[in-house]
Amino acid sequence: MNAPADLARLHPAVAPRPVPESLLAALRERFGAQCSTAMAVREQHGRDESPFDVPPPAAVIFAQSTRDVADAVRLASDADVPVIPFGVGSSLEGHLLAVQGGISIDLSRMDQVLSVNAEDLTVTVQPGVTRRQLNEELRSSGLFFPIDPGADASIGGMTATRASGTNAVRYGTMRENVLALEVVTASGEAIRTGTRARKSSAGYDLTRLMVGSEGTLGVATEITLRIYPLPEAVSAAICSFPSIEAAVRTTIQIIQLGVPIARVELIDVNAVRMVNAHSRLSLREEPMLLMEFHGSPAGVQEQAETVQAIASEMGGNDFEWATTPEERTRLWTARHNAYFAAVQSRPGCRAVTTDTCVPISRLADCLLASVDEADASGIPYFLVGHVGDGNFHFGYLIDPHDHDERLRAEQLSHDLVSRAIAMGGTCTGEHGIGLHKMGFLIDEAGDGAVAMMRTLKKALDPKNILNPGKIFSL
Amino acid sequence: MNAPADLARLHPAVAPRPVPESLLAALRERFGAQCSTAMAVREQHGRDESPFDVPPPAAVIFAQSTRDVADAVRLASDADVPVIPFGVGSSLEGHLLAVQGGISIDLSRMDQVLSVNAEDLTVTVQPGVTRRQLNEELRSSGLFFPIDPGADASIGGMTATRASGTNAVRYGTMRENVLALEVVTASGEAIRTGTRARKSSAGYDLTRLMVGSEGTLGVATEITLRIYPLPEAVSAAICSFPSIEAAVRTTIQIIQLGVPIARVELIDVNAVRMVNAHSRLSLREEPMLLMEFHGSPAGVQEQAETVQAIASEMGGNDFEWATTPEERTRLWTARHNAYFAAVQSRPGCRAVTTDTCVPISRLADCLLASVDEADASGIPYFLVGHVGDGNFHFGYLIDPHDHDERLRAEQLSHDLVSRAIAMGGTCTGEHGIGLHKMGFLIDEAGDGAVAMMRTLKKALDPKNILNPGKIFSL
């Protein structure tokens, strides 16, 4: 990786553009109490779960409608001022930081489920709806939205980062599950991409261009998603293994046999210990797979039998079944809290997280080499993974005031990403590029592809006002 | 629909740009015998299965490598001359027609399967590989590529049109199954989009932007696809129904219950008759569903029982099972030959085909109204559909010399598309826009979205040389 990118990973380029007083006046006039310039509000909207500290945006607009978003973008565009869409603030990669200044557009009040089309298995929501809220509202219909990145993220944020998480191995990611969007463009115009049809060959795939564009090409104001019938039968199980390798090789074989497993999550022994401490559990302190099976009763049993046979061959212990919904919820809550459990295990620390995803045949090689390196570093860390997709996360728990430790963690991350890219993988399976992985994107995609991305950005946002300075420098 | 679009559907705007003799000389020098200006070769590359007649391209380059494609594009770009990628010529929408002149780049000699990564369930191919060839080459590995548009199309062409077909209800379309591409851009540079990782959040989704762009944004020279383990058990069945409505309502219920059926194809009584005559079959002359189930033996049986119960409730006859691979092949070949069987049923005719796709809840309303209109018109027609996706095709069999009949067929098509769009559907589920559906794209996507597509096109192809005049006028 080149040196400037290394520096960018530690210190993003911060160059706030001027925000004229006339813009703030116009925003106050248009938005009244929906516009805040209070420092506490600005600071809350100027940070996320990334390890960066950057000055906050100049103002926050609490949008309540597409019209609000369009007007805010138009006013900002007239003044050449950046806008940064904000959902719940759970980005890990610095997406929400005002590195070029500007205003934050908070979408959390756009929290309506606009329509549930149960017969078509689609739902249309505003971007501020969170995934848990959506599933609450769907519950009575016998349907659910499977994408589950752990955090109770907003659907808008999940769309912007092309999120996925624990169920993606069976149900796909936001790439596969966003059918259509309403998007406010850089000029403040609302357009629609896609229809509610399951498939289409009607022109360029603007929906997929917007999904994962991290707020740099438009602001999604309505999102149409695929939803699924709640499976007739669900069962979850944990299985401990004598080594990470045994757990990973079990996963690889499950996938290669085509078992339609719904979730298969790796949790390393460090993460098990942290989760036990945080969630008052007594999970066996060994590497484990946390699995879930969806289907008909017979289908679930068939899947579970196949997986148990594979696990047993690899030295796995007996499955411990979580048969009631309450037990399942407790297990998955523990898994989802792994990040917070880890951060709390070292008071005052921050996590440098990785998000590599490799072809499944390379998963063991890639992951095990990085475990060795992390163990050798002496830096506390945890490892969890959506291993059915070949995606896993190290979290290196660093003292943010210890420059040397931070550098060593970044070196671990760098070595892991380089290995993943060399193996045909990606630097980010689901978190996005943001500020933190801009150098890696060049390594992975190459100058030609990144140049094409820049060309698209310049064409759709000629004033560079939509979340500028993210994905690539511009 | 606006009047100019109506005219475009009958007579595409043809305005050949000059092809300087110096370009032809340069192509001959660079490509030798791989460059042909023979009229027979040009004419073969200047038509497809669409009902349009347009003057042929000025030359045909038979590319054998990415380098060949890049050099051909660069030479054409230097002379401001269009290039049109050509696979096997099976487009139904005029994609291959040289409406602005230029040269055809024939990719059929780039027919190598470059790598099969069985453990990762991926394969990388050159664009001239056809789907049947690919499955032949995969057969010994126990894997298969499910996307099946009927014609033995090239993978490059299927990528360009975002093709799908009979298996999409279970396995998705080219949108879901292309993982990565090598693409030659308008400047003749080769870039890579995507990796072999199953998922990624690394920047803009250039892969999905290229898939379905109909050769207007780049020429795919390598394509990495998802492949699947051959199912342990496969069974196919046909079921006749007293009415199209009964067949469609059976399909809707199968999908809404979440049955993972692999194929569910509607064939109307006209198509059954034509197929019987063409393929010497004796299928019962009633509307029918042709279905296939993939899975474990127990899973397949479970699916089949569920579907039989639904069909029986809707008045369907008993299933007739095709249990041997030979019987299945015969059935699916008959289905795939429906188009040719239909065209041969009226000597000298051409087919005006439709490709609407609607949300499944609207399928019966949309389809039945169009059946009534087609019956009332007196024009011979057939109807087949990938109804599990809400996608179906009318083929109106017209005398190409009968202007009035052509107009009436276009009116039927227009009324159907308008109905589908009003129901939240799309004018094209899998064939693409090409020349024939440009007016419909505006109706469906709106001026704002089409303007965004034009902006993208101008940014990536400033000289407008990549298959110009397709998707939208430019």
Automatic annotation (TrEMBL), chains A, B:
GO BP: any one term: lactate catabolic process
Entry keyword annotation includes Flavoprotein: yes
Ranges in coiled-coil conformation: none
GO molecular function: D-lactate dehydrogenase (cytochrome) activity; D-lactate dehydrogenase (NAD+) activity; FAD binding
Boundaries of every FAD-binding PCMH-type domain copy: 53-230
Protein keywords: FAD, Flavoprotein, Oxidoreductase, Transit peptide
SUPFAM superfamilies: FAD-binding/transporter-associated domain-like (SSF56176), FAD-linked oxidases, C-terminal domain (SSF55103)
EC number: 1.1.2.4
UniProt enzyme class: oxidoreductase
CC cofactor: FAD
Protein family: Belongs to the FAD-binding oxidoreductase/transferase type 4 family.
UniProt protein name: D-lactate dehydrogenase (cytochrome)
Organism: Pseudacidovorax intermedius
